Amino acid sequence: MNEKIGRIYFGVLGIITLIFGITDLIVTIGGNDFSWGILEISSDMFRGGWGGLIVISAGLFYLSSLKNFLEIHQFSKALMASILIWILAGTDIFVRITESIPGGEDGPWFNSLEGFLSTYAPPYPPVIFLLPFSLVILFSLSKRKKA
Amino acid sequence: MKKILLMGNPNVGKSVFFNRLTGANVIESNYPGTTVDYTKGYMKGNSEDFEIIDVPGTFSLEPKDKAEEVAVKMLEEKKDALVICVIDASKIERGLYLALEIIERGYPVVLALNMWDVAEDKNIQIDIEKLKSILNIPVVPTIAISGKGFKEVVLSIKKAASVGVKEIMEKVGEIK
Amino acid sequence: MTLTADERWDLIEKISNKVVTFSKFKHTLKDALGELTVKPLTGIPIAIAVLYGFWSVFSSFAGTLCTDGFFVKLFDGHFLPWIQSVFPGKGGWFYYIFVGDPAADNCFEAFGVLTSGLFVAIGVVLPAIFIFYLMMALLEDVGYMPRLAVLIDTIFHKIGLHGYAIVPSILALGCNVPAVTATRILETKKQRFIMMTLLAIFIPCGAQLGIMQEVIPESIGIVLLYLIFGYFLFGFILNKITPGKSPEILIDVPPYQKPLWNNISRKLRMRLGGFFKIAVPFVLFGCAIVNILYLSGTIDWLARVLTPLLTGWFGVPGETVGPLIAAFLRKDLAVAQLSAIEMSKYQMITSVVLVSIYFPCVATFVMLLKEGWKNLLGSLAVLVTVIFLYGGLINVIWKLLGVQ
Ligand SMILES: Nc1nc2c(ncn2[C@@H]2O[C@H](COP(=O)(O)OP(=O)(O)OP(=O)(O)O)[C@@H](O)[C@H]2O)c(=O)[nH]1
Ligand SMILES: [Mg+2]
Fold this sequence. Notes:
The complex is a heterotrimer of chains A (about 150), B (about 180) and C (about 400).
Chain A: H1 3-30, E1 34-36, E2 39-41, H2 45-64, H3 72-100, H4 113-118, H5 126-134, H6 136-146
Antiparallel strand pairs in A: 1-2
Chain B: E1 2-8, H1 14-22, E2 39-44, E3 49-54, H2 66-77, E4 82-88, H3 92-104, E5 109-114, H4 116-121, E6 124-126, H5 128-135, E7 139-141, H6 150-156, H7 165-174
Parallel strand pairs in B: 1-3, 1-4, 4-5, 5-7
Antiparallel strand pairs in B: 2-3
Chain C: H1 5-19, E1 20-22, H2 29-38, H3 40-86, H4 93-98, H5 107-110, H6 113-142, H7 144-158, H8 166-174, H9 176-182, H10 189-202, H11 206-215, H12 220-241, H13 261-295, H14 298-314, H15 321-329, H16 331-338, H17 345-357, H18 362-370, H19 373-401
Helix pairs in contact in C: 2-3, 3-6, 6-11, 6-13, 6-16, 8-9, 9-18, 10-12, 10-19, 11-16, 12-17, 13-15, 15-16, 16-17, 17-19
């Protein structure tokens, strides 16, 4: 990935990430969950509040990496931003996994197949939408390694 | 039974050494100060058995804290012990400081230049043969986590003998 | 012949000039990432993310999956009714000690050694410390701990401990026992004393965190906040009043490393082994003792005697005496027993805080004793002061907020 494309891509991603993070915080302060289509923003202090702060940091990391993007210290910021998103998205997916396995309080030991699958159905929090786009950093990473 | 002390700076891999040599289980972690007390273990050698002691990391023989005190006390108690001095090859100077102190006190020393992989990553080259001939003790490059160099360390135990610093100082002058 | 330090450094320089060549050293991505985690501006958000991930995995694995998903069902739905019906001598004291309340429909309220005791130890605490130790071993081996230490260094300087103090404190989150020993890496008596005292009083252990996220998931944040604040407040005060020096130490930051599965699983096995050998017997024994004290009327008597203090000063019900006695042995058991007592949310928070800052559990106590009885007496003096002042303060806060 050449420098210019990288800068544009991660610039846009940074701005979107930042907006998501700020929305997270606003929703948390507002106190009511917000949902729009398949997007859901939690007002929970942990997910929305702390999570929102981390999303904002990720956005800022992306944006601060743009100048001289391919230089290693700059590039590492973009990588770190992606890692932050992976932590958030990863834990969110992990929560779903732990919820999907047991059969519920009065149910059988294990969940039914539908119950299992429905845990993974939308709506999703913002980080899940950011996840695929943040993975692009791996592509630039492999390009770097070759170069 | 011959006693062997594993000494060296904090976080250089002494406990990994210990676990590998003795098959024991002491905690290893990637931060200085994991081991704060000594642990004994046993190793079967080719001809004789050894008692090996994992000692807390220390920077010098003038102890700064309680963990280092334990290290120095161990050394002073085991007058007839042999010391495997484990050094971080990427930070060789501070390791040598402790090694020299131990040598000065007359202990036979085997020098293990551990974290050889890290030193290579950092592009640090160490001339083992030269170092051997300057110090006149066995010097072995090792990578504790993969076990590289361990055989040689064990074999070198026989060859270790106490040397004087005076000779070392003279030798440094001579060698190119 | 021995050398002076200067002569030795001199010799080393000569040696290394002859044998070591440093080629040009380029910063790798690993180094650059390492730097980011240490600089405050970038390091603090990263630290928050790491803690966030840690907590999220911890509570969803231990709480959602293991305890709520399976163990509650197993213990309350199957084991409890079974043992209630097959255990001989219903109504007798033996039954009371081992099974507890024959009418209880959940293990928190049954109180027996084989019901509450086993449930707390196996159903709640075991999964919690399993995942806790696993993640901790990961962070230890990757090399994140010393970086967190550097990061927090500035804050710690203010309370008179160099950043390395964070290492015993983090270890204490797993278990206070090895943490007390880990204070030996601190240089002066003063530093060791402050650290031991602080961690014995304010740092909840993994077992306690596990049970807390099970019984008070919505207020655990407040409890932790209150404890952390106390940690710094009393650290600051102790630093002012304890005689002695607190010198600095350069913190050595080792490079990041790929964690070795071998090492992690070994550590996990050792720590879990320790849990079964030491913690589980203490939980069961604690249950038995509290039950005996109930049976003999000691607890009722104590509750009556202490109610003016407990209710008047701390604002919690007199029945908390039972759990407070259990807290001598195991804090996780104490928190579990608290959850069976009728009280308001705020009283619950206060009593969990009390259990936390109250006497260290017996295992920690023994460790403190091993490190010197003078220190121990000092720590206990601080502890009593903290319980009364800081424990009383939270009640005052509730009163001022008008929630109690
Ligand atoms: N890359 C690399 N890592 C190593 C090597 N040897 C040990 N380590 C790692 O270095 C870290 C420290 O190892 P320990 O054995 O705990 O160090 P120690 O010398 O016992 O440290 P203290 O007990 O604190 O004095 C661990 O994370 C090991 O996995 C090596 O040769 N190469
Ligand atoms: Mg060690």
